[in-house]
Design goal:
Elements lengths: L3 H14 L9 H16 L2 H4 L3 H25 L5 E4 L12 E4 L13 H13 L8 H12 L1
Antiparallel strand pairs: 1-2
Length: 148
């Protein structure tokens, strides 16, 4: 978490290298389209082949980038989202993971969003060439900001 800004910059640089801009209102849609196409092109090699470490890093960097974007958008709307190490219910998918917390529009004070889980699961679907919406990351962003 301490190097998340560096990781976000690295993702942006990689995207720029591929001709993709992660600036502007459509950045999350553009990121989703680019990652989906890149993962589908790599196929199973992105999951358990030579490209697996690269795609694991892409998933982490994309989750950090998306989380930071969500936090910024929520703050602009008066929200107070933040990254937090989740240590609540041990059987939760987010247990001992960095998740977004601080939601004010949700009744459950323990509510969290595990951005990394969403991104990694979706990216795996893309790599397996299964039906996966390219606007999935944008949907996560919109619904999370709406709950902030």
């Amino acid at each position: 978490m301490a190097v998340r800004s560096v990781r976000c910059q690295a993702l942006s640089a990689l995207a720029t290298h591929d001709g993709i801009s992660l600036a502007g209102d459509r950045a999350t849609v553009v990121l989703g389209e680019w990652l989906a196409a890149t993962a589908a092109a790599a196929g199973l090699d992105a999951i358990d082949g030579a490209q697996a470490p690269r795609f694991a890093g892409l998933a982490v960097d994309a989750a950090l980038w998306l989380g930071e974007r969500i936090i910024d958008r929520a703050a602009a709307a008066g929200g107070a989202l933040r990254w937090e190490l989740y240590t609540g219910v041990k059987k939760s998918t987010g247990y001992q993971r960095a998740v977004l917390t601080g939601f004010r529009k949700v009744a459950d004070a323990r509510y969290y969003v595990d951005v990394a889980h969403f991104v990694a699961s979706w990216l795996e679907l893309c790599a397996r060439r299964r039906a996966a919406r390219t606007d999935f990351l944008a949907t996560i962003e919109e619904t999370t900001v709406a709950d902030a």
